Amino acid sequence: MKILKRATLLTAMLLLLAVLMALVSCDDDSTPAETLGGEAPTSAPTDTVPETEVGAAPESGDATEEPTASESGTDEPGTDEPGTDEPGTDEPGADGSDTEEPNTEESATDESDTQEPDTEPPHEHTFGDWSEEKAATCTEKGSEKRVCACGESESREVPAKGHVEVTDAAVAPTCTETGLTEGKHCETCGAVLVAQETVVAKGHVEVTDAAVAPTCTETGLTEGNHCETCGEVFVAQETVAAKGHVEVTDAAVAPTCTETGLTEGKHCEVCDAVLTAQETVAAKGHTFANRECVVCGEYEVSVGLTYASLGNNSCYVSGMGTCTDSYIIIPETAPNGETVVGIGERAFANSVLTDILIPDTVKSIGAYAFENCTLLVVVILPEGVTEVQEGTFSGCTALDTVTLPDSVTSIGNNAFQGCERLESMDMPEKLESIGNSAFENCRMLIIVILPEGLTSVGNSAFAGCTSLETVKLPDSLTSVGDHAFKNCESLTALTLPAGLVLVGEGMIDGCKVLVYIYVVGDEIPEGVQEAVDGLLDERKEQGDDSGLDVKQGGNNAHAFKSWVTITAPTCTETGLSERICGVCGERETKELVARGHSEIVDPAVAATCTETGLTEGKHCEVCDTVLTAQETVAAKGHTEVVDAAVAPTCTETGLTEGKHCEVCDTVLTAQETVA
């Protein structure tokens, strides 16, 4: 602002000097009227005084306004007069130099003295383009100037450019090297605007590399560690050698009759890798003798039997069907896949079967199922059968051995009627009742011991058992039916238990040698005396005057009868015999020595080239126990012989080389004709 004021003041002074010079000239060449009364000049001289500060000079081509007469003699606000100290008076310049005040009087005098009359009009500058005088920097101003054709020049200030800001990207620190924060600098001059600061290195983040255990076939690694961030290894993992297999022998499995076997193999105990695979050995197949395999004991089941379905995947045998076997072996599973759970009513009645094998799956046997099987000798009923129904074995005149399971609770009417060869019967422990005529006419039955728990014996249950010598009735028995022991002609004594309350009519009729009845209880049961009286009357009619003694309570000396075999000894197990006191029913037992095996030689079977053989063995003729097992002899394999090639001739064909077995003559490689 001060510069502008000084420039304005200087301009005004120059204009004033020009006017004065003009007036002087006018005094010489023109009248005052022309000078003062005519049109006043409207423009100041065009010569422009060079500016002393950049930016104060007018733009190129602008005309400089000439001050009017009043302006030249009038003080405008803010105009500094020379020699005054008013506000706005120019101070020393920015460059430190004082601005020299112009001497108007001297200037005016000089001009008037030198100016010639009739001079040319004032010069108007024609400036050229601005050119850089001093380059502006980011922080300092520059200047530029232009020059008139007359050589006069003017300058102006160029503002400082200011910085061109560039971001210096942050540098992340690593585990081992420092980083930098974000900074800034000037793209032009390189001045640092925001200094980047050092960021300390992070340091390693140590991570353990877990050890890897070696396996049988693959190497392992020791434990190591590394930096989680940069991956630098601190402790290198080292290779651990593979352990190798720990060999275990897989034992050979001998084939059975129905299941395959395995050859010996080997595997690793640690990783289970198979080192030597076990190969399958074919099943041997059964070797049957009398419908039973001599190797495994499995039976050859009967084929052709008929079955009736019960639903629920079960069935029962309904008849012989087309089966012609005399030894019936009932399968556990019928041909249709259903389980055989029973034998139907009269299924085998009047058949010629001699033996029957009943599987454990059978739980019921129908009435008269084996009626009149006159050749049937032995019967073993499986556990689970609860009832021997009516007439089941009636008329089986050859039946001498019956084994009933403890699950049987009742024996029905006529169940064993007419089984003339039946000598003894082990009664089931859970037996509760014996039906009418159940054992009637079992003429060879010698001893009967009825179990505790039995409560009733039916009418004629043991009638006609002419060989029956001993009967042991349990304390649980409460009733005995009519004629229960009628015609038991060998019965000499009978003990009646204390719990017996009812004795049927004619219970002991026909007991010709019965001489003693011992009553254990305090009272003689109802019907006993009538039975005794009836027997005595019968004897009198026959001229027999032998008596019958009935005693109650007390004990007498034992009167044991003959020893009777209760359990027959087997080849390996002892048996048991028993005798019973005919007076009180007390019994004694003694052990029977095992019989020992009856050894039979099983001949060796020679192995062939392709089939295995058997070593000599031994088994028991009675119980079929294998005493010396026959071992498999490996097939010998072929003994190979080369059949020489025959060269063809002009007229005869030849043969290629072949091979055959020297032992069995099997052709191993067939000879082919050569034309």
What's this model, at a glance?
By secondary structure, the chain is mostly beta strands.
Description:
The protein has 675 residues and is mostly beta strands. 9% of the residues lie in helices and 25% in strands. It contains five helices and 52 strands. It is elongated and about 215 Å long. 21% of the residues are buried.
For the sheet with most strands, the description reads: 6 strands, parallel
Structural class of the helix and strand makeup? Answer: mainly beta
Widest sheet: strand order?
28-30-31-33-35-37
Ends: how far apart?
A: 136 Å
Query: How large is the radius of gyration?
Result: 73 Å
Mean pLDDT: 83
% residues in beta strands: 25-35%
Instruction: State the share of residues found in helices, binned by percent.
Output: under 10%
What shape does the CA trace take? elongated
In terms of per-residue confidence, which ranges show pLDDT below 50 for 5 or more consecutive residues? 29-114
Count of helical regions: 5
The count of strands amounts to 52
Task: Based on the model shown, name its key terms.
675 residues, mainly beta, six-stranded parallel beta sheet, four-stranded mixed beta sheet, 52 strands, 9% helix
